[in-house]
Design goal:
It contains 7 helices and 10 strands. The protein has 219 residues and is of the alpha+beta class.
């Protein structure tokens, strides 16, 4: 990796770094094997052509250097919006994420993001960018939608209803109701709780079904 200067680690792993290459701030990502590298490079190349993912500046056998995107993570803005009950911002975030996903599905046909982490999406100038494609695999879009809804419920500030404006718009944009994806949502909660031991899964499920019953069937 000659010519690349690592500045600092920017993820909870030993693979992703803020770096400098040819005088330009960038992101260095290391890989444990060549197959993983080839997979992500192929997807990044497709999505970056649409303008919704960083471009690859340099690639090697076990690393890539990609553009550094200005902006804030979707997770940071989502937490801030739920804390402040900023309905308009929550709706905007949901719309921007929906546009990104619809573009992703159109260029990576038959695949889903699968592992949803709002930290892997960057918001800048009213656009959502995807920056991590490690978990992409074949699957149905509803799995992503369920994981987005579940992630929003787990990471919002306050009770589950504080993320309702975001959830409502996501479901509306993909023509899905909570009841359609409830089993996948529950699976996410159970998996999360097995590691964190902090969720009242039954209460969360009841709250989501209440949202569906009272409001979502009106959109």
């Amino acid at each position: 990796m000659e010519g690349i200067k690592i500045i600092k680690n920017i993820a909870n792993d030993d693979r992703t770094f803020l770096a400098e290459y040819n005088g330009q701030i960038c992101v260095l990502k290391k890989y444990h094997d060549a197959i993983e590298n080839i997979k992500e490079v192929a997807i990044l190349n497709r999505v970056s052509l649409t303008g919704y993912a960083p471009k690859i500046l340099l690639k090697g056998k076990d690393f890539i250097v990609q553009e550094y995107l200005e902006g804030q993570s979707l997770n940071t803005l989502f937490i801030q919006a739920t804390r402040q009950d900023d309905v308009k911002m929550l709706e905007n975030l949901a719309n921007w994420l929906s546009i990104y996903l619809q573009i992703f599905y159109s260029v990576v046909d038959g695949c889903i993001v699968k592992h949803i982490d709002f930290n892997n999406f960057i918001i800048f100038n009213d656009r959502c960018y995807g920056v991590d494609y490690d978990s992409v695999e074949e699957g149905l879009n509803n799995i992503d939608i369920a994981n987005i809804v579940a992630y929003a419920c787990v990471n919002c500030v306050g009770d589950v209803f504080s993320c309702f404006p975001f959830v409502r718009v996501i479901l509306k944009n993909f023509h899905v109701e909570i009841i359609d994806i409830i089993n996948e949502v529950k699976d996410f909660f159970v998996d999360y709780n097995s590691a964190m031991h902090i969720l009242d899964v039954d209460n969360l499920m009841e709250s989501l079904l209440a949202i569906n019953e009272k409001v979502l069937n009106r959109i």
